[in-house]
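Researcher: We're teaching a course module on how sequence relates to structure. For the next exercise, students receive a sequence and then see the predicted structure as C-alpha cells, so they can try to spot secondary structure elements on their own. Here is the exercise chain.
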Amino acid sequence: MQEEKQTQAMDIVRLARDTKRPTTLDYIKFMIRDFLELHGDRRYSNDLAIVAGVGFLDDIPVTIIGHQKGRNVKENVKRNFGMAHPEGYRKALRLMEEAERFGRPVINLIDTPGAYPGIGAEERGQAEAIAYNLYKMSTLRTPIISLITGEGGSGGALALGTADRVYMLSNTIYSVISPEGCASILWRDSTKANEAAEALKLTAGDLYEFEIIDGIIEEPAEGAHKDYEAMAKKIKSVLVPALKELLALDVETLLERRYDKYRRMGVYSEGDGVPSQ
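Model: And here is the predicted structure for the students to work with:
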C-alpha cells in the first residue's frame, strides 16, 4: 500500500510537469475577455516568466497574473522555464497594487519549479522581492485568489500564493522543494524521489486535508491538457462565485479573514487536546 501511494504521488508530479499542460496564456485565452497584457516592473526590465494584465472574468474586471512556461526548448528559454527573476515578482506586485487602487480582485495562476536562483537574480534581490510580495499581499485591500495549475515550487510559488482562497487542480503539486531535491538532501540519492514525493505530502489531496488549500478542482483522468477550453470553463465555474463572495465582504472583514486563515496553519494538538503551535 505504501509503495502504491508513493507511485501515485510521483505520477501526479509527472502530470504537473507535463509540457502539454495549459499555461497561463492558455487559460487567459479561454477565461478572460478583453485581456490587456501589461509589462515591466518600472525598475529593471520585463520578465517574460511572469504574464500579467487586466480583463474581464464574466462581467468582473480582474487583474490576472501567472507564471508562464514554454511548449518547447526555444519557448522555455525565452520564458526561463517559468522561473521568475525578482523583476517578475516586482511586476506582479506593481499590478496587484494597481488592482488595489482600482478595486479590482486579483487572480494568480501558479506554475513554476521555483524562483530563478541565478547570480544576477540574487544580486537584484530575489529573496527580498519574494518576501516583500508576501508582506504586501497579506494586507492587500482587495480580494486575491490563487490557483496552482502545475508546479507550485518553493518561494517562487509563495510569491503569488498568499491569498484569500487557494485552489489546486487535482494533478498539481505544492511544496517547499522538488522530490528529487528532497531525496538528494535527505538520502543523497535522487533516485529515491518516489519516497520523497510521498513524504513531502505535496499533492492537492494532502494539502486539502491539512487545510493549506481551500479546494481542489478536478481534472480529467488524463490531465488538464486533454481539453484546454473545458478545463478553463471548469476553473471559471469555481472562480466566479468565489470572487463574488469575496467582493461582497467589506475590506476589514476580508483582511481579518485572510489573517486568520494563515494564523490557523500549523496548529496541532498534543495529548491533552490543547492546541499548540
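Model: If you want an answer key for the exercise: Residues 228-247 form the longest helix (20 residues). The first strand starts at residue 32 and ends at 37.
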